[in-house]
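Translate sequence into structure tokens.
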Amino acid sequence: MVQKNNKSRKNIALEMYNEGWKVEIIATTISRSKSTVYRYIQEQQDEIRFPILKDLIKKNLLCGDFKGFIESLSYNDICFLRRKYKLYGYDKKSKIKAILDYFKHFSILGIYPDERTKEMIKKAFFRRAKETHPDKNKNVDKSGKEFQEVYQSYTYLMEITA
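Result follows.
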């Protein structure tokens, strides 16, 4: 019964907010703190924003300029990604670094973290290996540093994928 009551209070708070009520008045009306009402609003906005942001992340992971994409995001989107993937960071610069560190291996192979499977990782690895292997491609550096990064990303992602 308590959960149903909390859910109805949340719905009431969101309806009031969408109608233009002030957060202080909403908090008093539903007998919750202002921080709880702000959390309700943030959760609703995150649910709306995530599918859009997810598609943008997928596109930019594949195109290769992921760092530029993350740096161009709004501060709210950066904070949302930090919350969504449970990353660290206290200011914009450290949050961006945490996001880039988290997505590093995924961006190298060009796959999205939430939808990864071992088969998908293997396919992405073979595709990128053809592009970066010094023996297969004459246009790449003969030292093979880029291929080594691809291989390290492949082994790391295979280890963490169930």
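Note: DSSP finds eight helices and no strands in the chain.
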